[in-house]
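Hi V.,

Quick status before I head out on leave. The structure for the redesign project is tokenized and pasted below; the design run finished overnight.
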């Protein structure tokens, strides 16, 4: 079954949300609720339909059941995030398990792990957190887009706290070349220092959520 779409009145910062649950009625009910709150929403009951839709629909948030028929919601979310890295995930389940809750956040980068029946206030708080995370990550991706491949390699090492000499040794280049790349990175990302680069790196990796 293909996805369904719901759009309602505008809000200050609307988001694009995908809902995945093999309970078609629940998926559609959540779509209507979130659309009523002003978001653009598509609902899916089949993981393959969701993954196929990600080619032209870039959700800021995926609201995902952890058991979709015989499919593993965690595995589906990982596949979806590979296609849309800036997409946040909120997991939900009717069968809460402590280990699943821990995995949802630490291993699979979920913003939250909600128990059914869903509490509307907690759901909306989780969605808002997810949208905020996604906006930060998309902004980080945009700021890094101008970097060359080598500049990105230098950036990745710098934000891990490596000094110029270590970066030079790792990449097989001179310290002067590292310094030149570092200056270019600062200019292209509008960063004022290493601390801001580290913050940018954390936003890109989702460290604030994945810990």
């Amino acid at each position: 079954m293909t996805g369904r779409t719901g759009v309602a009145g505008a809000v200050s910062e609307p988001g694009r949300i995908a809902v995945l649950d093999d309970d078609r009625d629940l998926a559609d009910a959540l779509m209507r609720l979130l659309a009523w709150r002003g978001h653009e929403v598509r609902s899916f009951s089949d993981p393959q339909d969701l993954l196929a839709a990600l080619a032209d629909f870039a959700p800021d948030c995926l609201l995902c059941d952890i058991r979709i028929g015989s499919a593993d919601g965690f595995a589906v979310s990982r596949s979806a995030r590979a296609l849309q890295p800036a997409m946040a995930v909120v997991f939900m389940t009717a069968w809460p398990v402590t280990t699943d809750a821990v995995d949802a956040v630490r291993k699979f980068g979920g913003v939250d792990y909600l128990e059914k029946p869903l509490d509307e206030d907690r759901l909306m708080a989780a969605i808002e957190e997810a949208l905020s995370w996604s906006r930060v990550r998309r902004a980080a991706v945009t700021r890094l887009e101008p970097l060359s491949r080598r500049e990105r390699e230098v950036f990745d090492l710098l934000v891990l706290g490596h000094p110029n000499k270590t970066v030079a040794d790792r990449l097989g280049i001179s310290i002067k070349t590292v310094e030149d790349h570092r200056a270019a990175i600062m200019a292209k990302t509008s960063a004022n220092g290493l601390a801001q680069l580290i913050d940018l790196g954390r936003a890109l990796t989702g460290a604030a959520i994945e810990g």
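Above is the designed sequence. Residues 90 and 112 are 5 Å apart (CA to CA).

G. will cover questions while I'm gone.

Best,
W.
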